[in-house]
Amino acid sequence: MVVKPKIRGFICTTSHPEGCAKAVEEQIDFVKAQGPIANGPKKVLVIGSSTGFGLSTRITATFGCGADTLGVFFEKAADKKRTASAGWYQSVAFEKAAKEAGCYAKSFNGDAFTNEMKEQVIETIKSDMGKVDLVIYSLAAPRRQHPVSGEVFKSTLRPIGQTVVQKTIDTATGVISETSVEAASEKEIADTIAVMGGEDWKMWMDALKDADVLTDGATTVAYSYIGPKVTQEIYRTGTIGQAKVDLENTAAVIEKDLAALNGKAYISVNKALVTQASSAIPVMPLYINILYKVMKKYDLHEECKEQIFRLFKDRLCTEDGIVPVDDAGRIRIDDWELREDVQEEVGGMFNEITTENHDEIGDLKAYNEAFLRLFGFGYEGVDYDADVEVDRQFA
Fold first, then answer.
1. 34, 73, 116, 228: which has the fewest C-beta neighbours closer than 10 Å?
2. Is 235 a catalytic residue?
3. Structure confidence at residue 206 as a pLDDT band (50, 70, 90)
4. SS3 (DSSP) at 89
5. Catalytic pick from 137, 235, 266, 367?
């Protein structure tokens, strides 16, 4: 099959297997070039490991720390008519590279919210790894079926309390307009918290602790986002933001539960990036393409690989074992994004940008290139006109 990008709304319905493999290769090469990370974890479980921060975490743990890893995700394999999802191709490529490097890597494709998935992972930890010393929770999903009640919850992206009118951009045409997003109902708020909040993270940690597969001193980290003032109404003070607050509050509960193991639970607040999730948030594509331009100007720009490497090297794996946190106990890898001079410039540009001046103020071309790279398109050395085998399987 000759694979070309097919864009529908804010998603790409095709993925390129060779391009996705190249994306993984580039991340691995970057991590290797930084040199080994001292004091790193050796047995790592990543829940939500196939794309974005989760995939970069697996790569950093393996090729920066020499760790064995288990990954959990929900991706689609190829069929006769469709390519596999990007996360499928990337996970296949990662697992192959990890095993070639002599590191254990095993992946579980399925619903991470179920008790059955938790049980499968625990049994594999017992049989293959013994115990894990780091658990990363990087799960993002549009829906969740509760493993006990069976109730299905669906997350929504809405403000709370009042309708919000915000700038947005059509990434296909570059047209900037205003969009109106109605306030969420109480049920929508509760459902979003049920999907994206901390309950499932705690269920995972409870199951791992009860099964005695956590080492003494084990650490768990969940990834979150706060963002700047211009995205607050849609994100941080909206339904997704309330779910993130619940996730953050859960860290303290989990750490208390891990006290007997001298364990730690952290939230890592990460930087805004072009992802499948962020592209669906009305204000984010416009904000991000301005942010990228400003951060590149100040030589502060990071993709997933740079950010997660910094998380490991400068935060989680310090020589004295002390993890730097803010006043709320959170790890802040969004510190460069929220630097005062960066946000002052981004905020001014956001207020001024229009369809007519976008080419001077923003960088839509860079945004769209980053978006396509999520699906394996736009990598040097890949022949996108060649016929490729789209059925890629785990070894």
1. 116
2. yes
3. very high
4. helix
5. 235
Work out whether the CA dihedral 325, 268, 242, 137 comes out positive or negative: negative
- Among positive and negative, which fits the CA dihedral 70, 71, 76, 80? negative
pLDDT higher than threshold 90 for residue 228: yes
| Segment 166-204, tens digit of pLDDT | 999 999 899 999 999 999 999 999 999 999 999 999 999
* DSSP 8-state symbol, 206: H
If you ran DSSP here, which 8-state letter would residue 85 be given?
Answer: P
Q: Where residue 315 sits, what CATH number does that domain have?
A: 3.40.50.720
DSSP string, 243-282: HHHHHHHHHHHHHHHTGGGT-EEEEEEPPP---TTGGGST
Q: What is the mean pLDDT of the chain?
A: 96
pLDDT band at 277 (very low <50, low <70, confident <90, very high): confident
Q: Give the pLDDT confidence score for residue 278 in this predicted structure.
A: 87
The DSSP 8-state label assigned to residue 218 in this structure reads E
For the whole model, what pTM was predicted?
0.97
Bridge partners, residue 348, by sequence: none
For residue 141, how many other CB atoms are within 10 A of its CB?
17
CA distance 78 to 81: 8
> What stretches of the chain show up as alpha helix (H) in DSSP?
17-34, 52-65, 86-100, 115-124, 186-196, 199-210, 239-257, 284-297, 304-311, 340-352, 358-361, 364-373
Structure tokens of 264?
Answer: 């730690």
Quote the domain boundaries for residue 252.
7-373
- Look at residue 279 and tell me whether its pLDDT is greater than 90: no
SS3 state at 208: helix
Q: Is residue 273 part of a domain?
A: yes
Q: Is residue 105 part of a domain?
A: yes
The amino acid present at 366, given as its one-letter code, is A
Domain count for the chain: 1
Query: Is residue 386 one of the residues assigned to a domain?
Result: no
Residue 293 falls inside a structural domain: yes
